[in-house]
Predict the 3D structure of the following.
Amino acid sequence: MRAFIYLRPRSIAEASAMAASAKAPAHFLAGGTCLIDLMKQGVEQPASVIDLNFASELAAIGVLADGTLRVGGAATLAHVARDARVEKGWPLLHETILDGLTPQLRNAATFAGNISQRPRCHYFREQGFNCEKKQPGTGCAARSGVHYAHAIFGIDTESGCIAVHPSDLAVALTAYDATVQLMASDGNRRAMPIRDFLKPAEADPTSETEAAPGELITAIDIPPQGGRSGDYVKMPAEGFAMASAATLMALRDGYVESVSIALGGVAHRPWRSSEAEAFMIGKEPSVKTFDLVATAFVNEAVTDEQTAFRRPLLKQVIMQSLDRAAAYWSRS
Amino acid sequence: MNEHTHWAGGDAALITVSFQVNGKPVSLVIDPRVTLLDALRDRLHLHGTKKGCDHGLCGACTVHIDGERRISCLVLAASMEGRSITTIEGIAAPDGTLHPLQQAFIDHDAFQCGYCTPGQIMSALGAIAAGDIKRPEDIPEQLDNICRCGAYDNIKAAIASVLPKEVKA
């Protein structure tokens, strides 16, 4: 691990000010479950580490006047899952958190850190392989190597990064259309939909998010789930998903009134399709409808001999998630 | 500073960090790169907490930080300023009587090589304290610690035997 200067701000303002003056590259440290690991591997070599664990205001969980859930960037996954308001009002979020990581890691991992975590691609995390993230233009060792768990959506067929976003949480947040609240090191604030905050593979591959150096994720805003049912399905059930689907669904008079479905483990960021969602509106929530939607999704996938098995896997995951979200309505 | 770790990247300014371990205050002057796990083992000579994978996957290094079960290999000792740590050395009674769960692991032969055992026990205690294990059926999902000997059945039996009566059913 490279030597670094350790900084310990006590507030968001102080963290931001430190980011502006710290020796670059400066990294924010929260749960450490991704960053410390990458520092041990030599993949991340920050000159300054700004420890956010002492800025308690950054870990706040609250509900705004309009019903939006505001989760501080440094709130841990475990604390959010334990919050009675979340369990009652955002059941899809609650379920997705408990489907990911181990209990020990959920006690450490934070909302901002989890959505900002770097890919689990072994060619990225180990030294000695060509990697578009580490050195753009050098090629991708995963393409000619072992890539059965890599991206099958949103990839260039010739070149570029084929890593997937490893987070379960980000998949649910994408289904919710969550908003990421950011504060730059000069104090300027901005908000960005998570679908824009997490970058596609074709963008600059050296980072996975739109956060500028020194820009802090102060909070993540999650709209109310309201009357919508939700369900998260993940394969494999433990470890990093090779296919997952988070669904939010509302029915009216037995037909789909609104639906949002985000896929995980298949692309550089959680994957949504406005066409697939539009197709379902007004349809009967039947196996036939779900089969058509899942088949349409899978037909868009780009696979080879290593990743071909993910087509039926993904189809099953999508159909199961839609079916379970719909089944909630026949029970109520 | 730490004979088990090779620092590839030069010298760092040392920092002072003060926290509690098993109820006793400690103060260390450390390189900020030192993890809590290495500080416990190499500086405080508490060798009960084990280094397994050192990458957050196996759970052998599980301790309690402010009462919550956490892995200690991916957390900097520097982040522990003012916090309270409990390790496997801190759960027996002052007279040396084993904690009921430690005794249950012996009674149920809940280990073979024993390397993962401190992590298993600290993880189980953290889960019970947090109310995450209410019934024996909750144990497999709540205990993700790896046991390469495969002593899971006896580990589960040991933990089940110490669950409060009202939730045992």
